[in-house]
Structure prediction request, 259 residues.
Amino acid sequence: MIIFRKLTGYFPQASLLVGLALCGVTSTASAAEVSVAVASNFTAPMQKIAKIFEADTGHKALLAFGATGGFYAQIKNGAPFQVLLAADTETPARLEKEGLGVAGARFTYAVGKLVLWSKQPSFVDDKGDVLRQGGFEKLAMANPKLAPYGAAAIETLTKLGLLRQLKPKFVEGANIGQTYQFVASENAALGFVALSQVFADGQLTQGSAWIVPASFHAPIQQDAVLLKTSKDNTAAIALLRYLKSEKAQAIIRACGYDL
Prediction:
């Protein structure tokens, strides 16, 4: 019996057409779905990639965004993700070592950039001296225990010799997405976010920013991994292959990442 698989269950062949209609699938019956856990910093590019991936392959990517550390805990507890696009290299490697990731399927899909950003124009100078000058009550960053961008922010402040001085002003987001919201809503005057969140088509979208030199922190190398329970999922395999395509890589670069 042919089975049509959804995250929430299975449809027998007799109701295949109904199942496809409910899921909004209009391509051939060979199209499949893949559930993807995506690091928050990669929200904008992945939303764009998912659309062209579906248009080009017929496969649908179901996206969930959050902190890499949080996704690791969920996957360990049996969350039905099939692909993880992490914000680091350690988490995918750990999943592979623990038998939850497919050996040999891990690769770097992007290298992120950290930026100190304020929604206010001219508030952040191009050298980050605003951190020394003060004039702000709150400094937002992602939880360094869960989010690699948060860890990079701590390394940056340590490099600048400002960690102890600024620690009382820290406001931590559960992930880089929440951190961005703190600054975008101006609940925090400035914060460390991912360049991809405030950068599009080669320029800053709003406010003011300082792109942190790569030498100030460990590289934010972001790895993808195919999870073991879905090693035969055609959509999952196709998505990982698609991330290496010229179309996907053009989007990744345009959103402020290196490859």
